[in-house]
Every structure is written in structure tokens, then in C-alpha cells.
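Q: How would the C-alpha cells look for this protein?
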Amino acid sequence: MLGEYRIEGRRAAEIAADVERAVGDGGLEPGQLLPPMRELAERLGVNPNTVAAAYRTLRERGVIETAGRRGSRVRPKPATTVRELIRVDVPPGVRDVSNGNPDTELLPPLAEVFAVAAAEGDRRPVLYGEAAVDPDMERHARVAFAEDGVPGGPVAVTSGSLDAIERVLAAHLKPGDAVAVEDPGWGSLLDLVPVLGLRTVPVGVDDEGPLPADVEQSLRGGARALIVTDRAQNPTGAAISAPRARALRDVLAAHKDVLLIEDDHGHAIVDLPLHPLAGVTRSWAFVRSTAKAYGPDLRLALLTGDPVTVDRVQGRQRLGPGWVSHLSQRAVVRLWEDGVVDAAEVAASYGRRRDALIAALAERGVAAHGRSGMNVWVPVPDETGAVARLLHAGWAVAPGARFRMSARPGVRITVSTLGDADIETVADAVASAVGPAPARRYE
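A: Here is the predicted structure in C-alpha cell form.
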């Protein structure tokens, strides 16, 4: 069963550590079956409960998975496999359109707003025991959420979208629970879910968002949570339309116990209206990041949701980082109040580049997708070959493997660094590398 490797240890922690070490150094391979608990306990001379505790720890850490009578196995893709490492090295002279970063020319200057926030902090220092959310930030957030039709709820601040999503999942789910996620979808999220000991269930996506039939199937199959991207979906640029939102709400209305998490990281960089799903299920969370519009290094996201969810998130947050710096919160508030970011102008800038590239590819017989945001998704018949040929042609694109589970191959192109003169060149290179590849959805 384990070949030459023999699990060792007398205590649960020792057994778990030995297995995790073996997975890390290759002694135990992905998908390898572990001994039944009683069998291993007998060999090690320990109580079966000790082995059960070790296996439970390994499941919670995302190292193994258990499928009832079929036993426990090393995860086929262990949590230590980070999708962000699936990338191409960009040699000198090659243009990098793979990284998903915003156009730095569209980001606001931060020196002045942080100076103002720091001066306010000198006058009124934030001390232990104060509210985690700056009052002005909470006020602005509530107004913005209400204007977009997001139901009213308490407000929390986290260190970015992924931090918020992790805390919400941990607040409601237990290891082994299934989470429905977009496929293709955000690579970091696809890494996070198994790290938490949860199971990913892929949901197909088209230009208007998650496919209702796939969502229905995943929820009927037992998924305890659904994570959707409202706008600027990564990597496809999908945005939930009004008809799609109605269809998804109808599905969710029949599964009110499901935890719904919405990610609106495209706020302030897209010109499409928001069609939120929040409020249909009993437990829900809505996350809005500042990263794309104001700068990734701000590490700040707003979270609202039902009172129980937000209370659990804030309670756990108090036992960790405590709160997100009020210095950063006040700086973001100043950015909002000063209106230094023209959301319509930013959205139009990304839209012109994105639409131009999609149109140029269409003229060359290549289907591409990008309804919103800063990325274009191109389905390809041979992902590895396409990436290599584009690199040879002077363009580094993101391999689709970073973003997909069962979806078809593709590559992601970030348009934020492309000028008007680049569009035809990129389109020629992509057409030469991939050839015609029409597709309407990405599964």
C-alpha cells in the first residue's frame, strides 16, 4: 500500500508530522492510499483513536482526504502545490502580459493621503479596545453598498479579498465540506479551499457568470458554500448580468442553508452595474477589495454580510491581527472623499484595450472573452504549446492551468500594460500560436 515508506510515531502529532513530511519530500505520492486506522494503530502499537486524531489533523491541514469506506489518501494535488507557481519565466526582451496587475498609471498617488491619515493618527491615536472599523470608512461603505443594492449588514475590514473569504469559510464550514467555485476561476482561491481541508466542486462559467444549471447541480450534490465573482471575473472577465442574477437567485432560493460569498473586486474598475445575489440565503458575505482600483499593497477589503457571519469573522480576527490598520483605512477614506480615482475613466481605459484585443483576435478567427476588467481569456487547443510559442514570439501569457480544474485549456492575457500600438502585434502572435478556437463557454 505504501511501498517502501513506513509511517512512524507514537502520538497523534508525531504520526501527522511524519506523514506530512513524507508528502513534502516525495516519500508519499499524491493519490497514495494510507493504511486503515486500525491496521496502522496495531502496527504502531497505539490506540486507534490516536491514529484517528492524526488523520483528522492531516485532513484539516489539507494533506489527505477521506472518502468513507474507500479510505484515506494523500490529496491528488496537495495543498503545498501553489497555482501561482504555474507561470513562465519572463526573459529579457519579452513583454509580460501574464501578471494580472493594474495599470500603474491609473493608480492614485498615496503619499499625500497617508500623510493626512498619519497626522490624524498623531492627533487621535488608535489604541487597544477601539472599534476595528474606522467610523468614516463604515459610513462610506454602507452608503456604497446600499447604492449598489447590497442588503444592509454589519461592516468589517480585512486584509484583502482572500483574507475575507478565508475567514468566512472558516466561520461556517468544517474540513471535508464541499465548496462550489467557478471553473475557470481565481487561482489563489482554488489553492485556498483545499488548504482549509475543504473540497472544491467546479461550476462552469460563461460571459454572464456562473451557469445556473451547474450551480444547481453542485448544491444538490451537497456543496455547503458557493463563491461567485460579480464583475471582472478572473481569468475570464465575466460579469453577472441581470437575467443571470435572477436565475441564480432562483437556484439559491431553494438552498437557503448554503453559504454564499460574493467577490466584487472589480468595483471602481468596471462600468457594468452590479447585480448582487446577497440576501437570498441565510448566511452570506459580500467582499469588495481596493486592490485593483487603488493599489494591491493597500491590502484592504470591505466585508458585509449577515450578522452571524460578520460577528464570527470579527471575533476570530480579534484573536489574530486584531484589526486592519486605521492608518490604511483613513487613507482609503481620503481617496474616496477626494475623488482622485475616476471610476468611469479607469473602466473605459481597460475596456478600450480589452475590446480592441478581442476584436482584433476575432478578425483573425480566434475566439476570446473579456466582458469586464483587465483580462482577456483565450481558449486554446494546446495550452503548453501556445504558451511556449507566444513566449518565443516575445509575449509571456498566463497558463490556463493556474485557473482551471475541469475547464478546457486557455491562456490569460492582461491588457493593463498594452498600448494602442501593441494590440495588432499581440493579436498576430496569438493567432499564430493558437489558431482559430471558437468557444462560448469555458468548461
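Residues 59 and 326 are 36 Å apart (CA to CA).

The first strand starts at residue 64 and ends at 66.

Upvote if useful.
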